[in-house]
TrEMBL record:
Residues 586-595 have a biased composition (Basic and acidic residues). It comes from Nonomuraea bangladeshensis. Keywords: Signal. Residues 1-27 form the signal peptide. This is CBM-cenC domain-containing protein. Transmembrane segments: none annotated. Residues 522-548, 579-603 are annotated as: Disordered. It comes from the Bacteria.
Amino acid sequence: MRRVLRAAAPAVLLAALLAAPSTPASAADLRLVNDGFDNGLTGWSGSHSPGGVDPVLWDGRTTARVTDADPAAAYGRESMPGLPAAAGTRYTLNAQVWAESGTAQLYLRFRDASGRLLSGGANASATGRRWNRVTTSGVAPAGTATVSALIYSGVADVGTAYWDEVLITKNVSDLGVQIESSVPNATTFAGGSAYALFTGTADVNPQLAVIDLATGTTTRKLTIPDSAATPTVGGWAATTATDGSVYLGTYPNSKLYRYVPGQSTISDLGRAEGGYSFIWDLEAGADGKVYGGTHNDGRYFKYDNGAFTTIGSVPVVAGAQNVRSIAHDPDANATYLGTGTNAALIRFDNVTGRKDSLLPAAYAHDSMVGGLTWTGGRLFAWIDRTLLVLRVVRAADGSYAAETDATIKDVDLQHSPARDGKVWFVKEGLLHSYDVATRSVQATSVRPGLDVTGYTWSGGTLIGLGGATDGTRIFRYDPATGEGSTRPVSGTPVLPAAINTLATGPDGRVYTGGYLTGGFGVHDPLRGDGDDDRPDTPTRNGLSQTDSMLTHDGRLYIGAYPSAKLYAYEPGGSWPPALLHTGGEAGDKADDCEPGKGPPPQDRPYALAGGPDGAVYMGTVPKYGKRSGALTVWKEGTAARTLCVAQDQAVVALAYAGGKVFGGTSTRGALGVDPVYAPGASATLFSYDPATGAVRLHPLPLTAPKAVTALREVDGELWGLAGGTLFTLDPARPGTITTKRLFPDPDYAAHPSLAWRDGVLLTVPQDPGHVYGTLGDQIFRIDRSTKAVTVLLTADGMEGLTADHYGNLYYRINERLYRLAR
């Protein structure tokens, strides 16, 4: 946003501004030079009568003043040279003007390659002693080479006007990458180096970085190969085989890759036994073998001597969709497998094929065993931030069972190999050790400050590598001295991150939240709209995947996955923002909103709404393997409450209207439920009364709708989208619901993610006669009175919708942000 100047010393301030260089944003191909007159009239050429235009401070701003006292003359300045333009393209011009007297005029002009004026273009005018935003647009005629702006006072006009923020855009602008990621998802070690896998996007391949642990430098970066038929986006799995080769497991193509240290290429070994989407984990076995586990068929496989082999049944545990974690005991040739949807932990004998269940009964209602390590003669199992230390014992009949040596809460996923009888990990932000012999946990005063993706030992020094708020870092800790330190890694891959959600903040900027690897982007509308492969502003790190955003009472509220975290950010404040609530800590894992019982822990906050009393409402999808979402009510100074609203349905849309909170549900539960959609269920509308706490269902007059993915208060009414149908109701009489079919329903069977977040409805103050929306791959406009719909844009893969304070619309495709001029 433009800085506001105080007029304590106008002459001094203006002189300083005139001396300052004008610096357009990099690759901003439609950014006018000196668009805010911060550099006087640089970039603005005289036109019409001489004089009449000068740079001045007005109302605390740097402006161009047009003074016209002669009704027989015309005065103005045109932005020259013009910006590159193409015939047939629509361009929109925006400006702010204060018409102290008379009428101020703004023109969009098109010229050919010789500079000849082809068309004066469309124009707009304004009057009034206040700041007005004026907009005009036009289609470039044949022969157009450039487009420019003209601030103007015509013949027969007299008056004085002050101009500021003259900005231009074409109809559709690719604003480029908004978020970057420079932290790894998976790490393994060999020969004094870390091998770290950095995730890409649907359009950009992931990379493997070779990092020298002694110097903290990246010595080699290799792009992971793939094909159009089986694209590779990223990976969670890495291990070092006994022959020194590095293996990587990827998604969404379930491929296995091998890298031989020192070589310049990575080998594509093919898909792990079919078309399954994830290799979740890899573990080295004896004699160069590698074991792995997949999603979504719960497959346990081996790669040996160039061949994949499925081990045991498919799935390896009945009902398992995921083999999420693997640990291998080379002495016994046994592999430990952590699975889900419903958590299971088994010991698999690779010689006999015998399977023994080891999961303690207390964890039977968890969804997944997220991490396993065999070290120090013990099995370390990580389940929802609890680290279990298990002693595996053999009974006389040859079966195996697990006895729990320790239960350690609030532990990060990764932990070190055992050394000197101790295993090291981060608990509640501090480095801790676990003594295998004494079964005791000891805290240090060291805070690593990074999300460790792997540990190793160098001599007697513990080394960890992972992501911090400023990128990838190496952590070192000497148990002998108790001293720890971190250092940044130089030269790591910097890759674009896919945009998961977008919103306009209270400061008018467009915020974007990253998918999977997290991160946050900030775009200043119309001030950096080039097609750029780098963000306009540095990525803000420190948040996980953003699922929703809400501007409310001067704050930007952020819903983040996992564990349905709610944050609040005040523009200009500190980053990362303040954590207000964690939905994953509430609820009972054994319940799924059965009658009289509370909701299960929640995970994905896809819906946010605000109330007039400052309350924030969050609608969520539950943790893995559950169906029932919830409504969370948060208000400053009071404890958050999480409520069941519709059993076996997630809450994916919210809006405040008529004194109540209305919510829309999805018949799709969390990942891992089977079948995907609750049998026989219909998505519904519900209301929550903040005064009484009452929840009421409002069934829709539709045949078995799958999801209500959008809600919006419009002129006192509630509007919503259920598939391709628009419905409306009066909040005071919610029993009367009218519907209108706008589009065919999305293909929810082929694309179940659409049942969480496909639709958006949006009101734009600059256009009080319409409501804007998205569904499928299109942006459309609805007439508020007639409900007639007009499709404005169709683009493969587009999602999300927000508007800037000019009324332009923003959406995303993969990692790129786009603007549609309204």
